[in-house]
Q: What sequence folds into this?
């Protein structure tokens, strides 16, 4: 709590302030004061340019930072919805600053909005912000802005054309609502003399009046809650003209019958609580008031608030701005939380709250999620009686929500025989531990002298890093409430194994320098250290992993390759692969251009109708893509698996209606892991790139023109050029590579499905532009057999689908 506790009282049996309870000191005089519609915030500026807000949930004063060296010189207002209040302040650099008010965070900067002059005063409601600013050529101008877009409400501002500026207030029209919020219909501006301006907030037009009520000097303006009367504090005379009310239909002022308080300096109150206050040089005078133009009996005086220049009220409390700071006035118990044993706790963790009250009564501790607008929940067992001025301590625990959350913990004290409670609050963060990571065979793998732990990380708001525990001595997760075992083993201590997930949300920890054939026990925790807090998840299950020497497929089979070419000497493999890909792209581009040209040139097509000329074919081109259905080589299956093995094939060659002779190219690439001598896959990487070459003869049964389905069968010889590259980060060799070739043969069968009949016009244009006689969808089943035993065995079955063009 940032307020200085004070106590002064007078005898009164009303629900109106009867004493000054606390004081927020300012280095210079408070200049403007405002209250939020949800009673959660009070804001003020000072003559020294400070901007401060009071969080009424905790009675904490927050200094609002203003960027760029500007100061708050042109009024302050709070607008927006009750769920999302916003703070506005006129700044010395001729701008309006805007901040979001958030419980537990304070004022969060949003934007600045330029004005065409020096700001003089602000007012706001749920939908709009109103500003009076001084222009060089026109003088004071009043205008309005949409609170969300800050678009001007009027084409030009209202010309106030009067010297000076003292105060302004928004006048609310009773019964006229929008989204449950009162709509401002008039803006009253006091000029510090006998001049008063009223601006219509609907049209932007203004009216002014100089009242003949004696020597008028308006010091303060206040609009009652509910909005039927606007009050003015007049220091130009005393007695019955000390405060004036503006009629709802015009700007005429009337002087209510009231006691003489001397020269007034400020006026304000809260009709729903039944009071109005008029400040004078000797004290703040409190009167009964329930709305309208009649003021009741004086209830008493609060000397500490003498000379207050601004007064606002909220349920149960009033606020008086003076030359030294802001007073909190109330008739309720003043409660102060003096100590909280912890403000960052785990869910359901107990902590204590110590508090005092200036009034005896009963207490209850409750909680709600900060800023959520919830109804407070009572803390079980945190209730009892309290004596005036005696510290009381309550034990509190807060429930889990499944995520990190900030609670407002509030102590309420209710005097005997009353229902009006005093309160104070404290923000307490509940840091929800992350769940334990999954450590099992799916997330832990071994390598050569290494172990790898990898898994999908939790969201960053749940955990930001992870720590891995490693030891050759078996342990259990229940053995450690926090932390984990120190490393024990024959190797050098790998040190702290704490890492963050990568940009893709994957945690990947490689632990090297271990001893093969030694069992290591692995566990992990998730760490949540967001917002300056620190918590550990429960420890994961413990998993045993044993590093072993690993081998590439070539090493397991004893294949040295073509003179054991090193990796850097096998660049030609990439050249062949690039050539195949380029050929594929070139053919695809040519086909695409041909189709585009054929579709775009109907006139040419009409000159040469399409015919399926069985004797005009001379060559063909195929491109197909598919997958292996099975592979015979067990070592390949151990390293690269049996699924998701994709294959690209292309064929080009001579063709007739019954026979084709083709040269084939292909590309197959896969990544996997090296294996042990027994075939167990490790975390050490292994990559295989293959360019299959083929020469085959195809028999096709294409008998009549426009035959929609053409079966075919083919056979031929293969030569598979391959390169295997492997990496063992913690092995002395670091990895290696082998390049070799495998001779074989194949047979296959399939179908050509003619596309020409689907759009004969397009087929004709394609024939005219690109000389494509027929276009087919092709599907092929192929069985491949390897020859020889001193190289990789690519005996396999595959299925591919693609396009075929006959020229």
A:
């Amino acid at each position: 709590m940032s307020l200085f506790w004070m106590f002064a009282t007078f005898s009164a049996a009303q629900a109106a302030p009867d004493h000054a309870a606390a004081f927020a000191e300012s280095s210079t005089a408070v200049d403007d004061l405002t209250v939020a519609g949800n009673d959660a915030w009070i804001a003020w500026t000072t003559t020294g340019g400070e901007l401060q807000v009071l969080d009424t949930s905790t009675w904490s004063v927050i200094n609002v930072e203003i960027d760029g060296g500007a100061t708050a010189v042109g009024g302050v207002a709070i607008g927006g919805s009750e769920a999302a209040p916003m703070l506005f302040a006129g700044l010395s650099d001729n701008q309006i600053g805007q901040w979001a008010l958030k419980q537990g965070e304070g004022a969060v900067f949003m934007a600045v909005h330029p004005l065409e002059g020096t700001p003089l005063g602000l007012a706001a409601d749920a939908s709009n912000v109103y500003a009076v600013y001084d222009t060089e050529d026109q003088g004071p101008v009043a205008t309005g802005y949409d609170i969300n877009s800050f678009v001007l409400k009027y084409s030009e501002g209202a010309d106030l054309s009067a010297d000076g500026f003292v105060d302004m207030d928004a006048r609310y029209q009773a019964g006229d609502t929008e989204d449950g919020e009162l709509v401002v219909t008039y803006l009253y501006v006091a000029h510090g003399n006998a001049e008063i301006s009223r601006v219509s907030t609907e049209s932007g037009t203004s009216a002014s009046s100089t009242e003949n009520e004696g020597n008028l000097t308006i010091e303060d303006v206040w609009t009652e809650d509910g909005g039927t009367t606007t009050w003015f504090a007049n220091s130009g005379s005393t007695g019955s003209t000390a405060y004036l009310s503006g009629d709802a239909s015009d700007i005429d002022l009337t002087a209510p019958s009231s006691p003489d308080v001397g020269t007034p300096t400020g006026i304000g109150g809260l009709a729903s609580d039944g009071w109005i206050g008029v400040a004078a040089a000797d004290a703040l005078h409190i009167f009964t008031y329930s709305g309208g133009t009649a003021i009741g009996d004086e209830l008493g005086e609060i000397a500490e608030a003498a000379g207050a220049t601004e007064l606002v009220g909220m349920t149960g409390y009033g606020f008086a701005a003076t030359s030294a700071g802001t007073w909190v006035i109330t008739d309720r118990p003043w409660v102060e939380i003096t100590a909280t044993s912890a403000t960052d706790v785990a869910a359901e963790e107990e902590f204590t709250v110590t508090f005092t009250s200036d009034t005896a009564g009963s207490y209850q501790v409750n909680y709600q999620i900060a800023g959520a607008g919830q109804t407070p929940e009572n803390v079980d067992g945190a209730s009892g009686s309290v004596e005036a001025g005696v510290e009381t301590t309550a034990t509190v625990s807060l429930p889990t929500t499944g995520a990190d959350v900030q609670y407002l913990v509030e102590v309420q004290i209710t005097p005997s025989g009353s229902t009006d409670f005093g309160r104070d609050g404290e923000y307490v963060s509940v840091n929800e531990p992350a769940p334990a990571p999954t450590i099992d065979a799916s997330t832990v793998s071994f390598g050569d002298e290494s172990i790898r732990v990898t898994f999908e990380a939790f969201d960053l708001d749940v955990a930001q890093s992870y720590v891995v525990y490693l030891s050759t001595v078996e342990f259990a997760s229940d053995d450690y409430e926090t932390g984990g075992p120190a490393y024990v083993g024959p190797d050098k201590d790998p040190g702290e194994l704490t890492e963050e997930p990568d940009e893709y949300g994957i945690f990947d920890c490689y632990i090297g320098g271990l001893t093969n054939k030694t069992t290591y026990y692995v566990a992990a925790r998730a760490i949540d250290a967001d917002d300056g807090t620190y918590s550990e998840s429960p420890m994961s299950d413990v998993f045993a992993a044993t590093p072993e020497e690993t081998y590439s497929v070539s090493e397991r089979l004893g294949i040295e390759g073509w003179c054991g070419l090193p990796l850097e000497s096998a660049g030609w493999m990439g050249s062949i692969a690039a050539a195949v890909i380029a050929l594929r792209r070139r053919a695809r581009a040519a086909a695409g251009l041909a189709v585009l040209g054929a579709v775009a040139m109907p006139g040419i097509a009409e000159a040469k109708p399409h015919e399926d000329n069985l004797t005009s074919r001379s060559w063909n081109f195929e491109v197909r893509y598919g997958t292996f259905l099975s592979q015979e080589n067990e070592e390949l299956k151990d390293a690269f698996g049996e699924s998701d093995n994709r294959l690209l094939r292309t064929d080009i060659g001579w063709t007739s209606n019954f026979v084709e002779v083709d040269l084939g190219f292909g590309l197959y690439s896969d990544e996997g892991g090296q294996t042990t001598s027994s075939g167990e896959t490790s975390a050490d990487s292994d990559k295989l790139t293959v360019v299959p070459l083929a020469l085959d003869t195809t028999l096709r049964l294409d008998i009549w023109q426009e035959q929609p389905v053409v079966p075919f069968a083919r056979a031929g010889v293969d030569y598979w050029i391959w390169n295997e590259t492997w990496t063992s980060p913690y092995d002395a060799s670091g990895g290696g590579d082998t390049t070799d070739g495998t001779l074989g043969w194949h047979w296959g069968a399939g179908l050509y499905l003619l596309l020409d009949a689907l759009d004969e016009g397009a087929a004709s244009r394609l024939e005219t532009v690109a000389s494509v006689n027929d276009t087919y969808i092709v599907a092929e089943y192929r069985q491949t057999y390897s020859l020889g035993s001193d190289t990789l065995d690519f005996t396999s079955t595959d299925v591919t689908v693609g396009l075929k063009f006959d020229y």
Notes: The chain has four domains: 4-330, 335-430, 444-548, 554-806.
